[in-house]
Amino acid sequence: MDSCPSVSVVIPAKDEQGSIGPLIAETHRILREHTNFEIVVVDDGSNDLTSGAALVAAREAGCAIQVVRHAQSIGQSGAIQTGIRAARGELIVTMDGDGQNDPADIPTLLSQAANLQGKDFCIAGFRHKRKDTAWKRFQSRLANRIRSALLKDGVPDTGCGLKLFPKSTFLKLPWFNHGHRFIPALVKGIGGDIEIVQVNHRDRTRGNSKYNVWNRAWAGLIDLAGVMWLLHRTRVAQIVEPRDMGPG
């Protein structure tokens, strides 16, 4: 492998054989001029050739890549956790594998991160003009308003897959299934800074959406209650110099 990258782009993917290759090629083309990076694709138990398509695309582009494949699907949060633990970069960028997040927004996130070094932080994307159905946008807006009102995280679009944070910050967070939807709130809960960056959102041109409104709604309510409990119970220690009792 090449020298240790400063940035790891973590892409969870399930049954994205048609999308993952073009996304890797595009990400490489954009980031190679900006930073030393790697791509970490986590194939979450796909039934197609997602892993193979990722490897072929990276080889053709000359891109540093890790492909980790789950024997069976454990969900997006589990895939993100696997990818971040495997990542070698100090900074983590997460991005959905369906190609709707735009890699061209990553340099903006990196520029923002330069002002936050040495801190716990999360830079969260905000999809201003979403390329989704009206029903899906309505559901998302309602869920974001309820979540934001209860958690007070100040994030208008926690479902946006495009985020950037230090790996060290992520490893401090409690983690659970569906936890990827609450990363900004969890980061804020440990005293971290939250920044919002408006990002592009594109039409899905390949593959099929895994979005299930009703399953997500019920799971979201349960998860929201759990996160509220976690944040209420979280205590952040302030480290100070020990007192010296002097000679004697």
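Second entry:
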Amino acid sequence: MTDFERKLYQIFVNMRLYGKNPTLPELKRKTGKGEQEIREATKSLIRKGAIAWNKEKKIWVI
């Protein structure tokens, strides 16, 4: 896991603790990265099994 993936994962974990889903603008603000970089890192985390999207509840599963 790269440093950016680890940072993104930690943001997902922290926001899930408070029952929130991070939005793309929030992720841009918190990471300082662009949309493409965030999407690539998120896809990488999904492929690694670190996170998953629950379509029914519309939440990230950690």
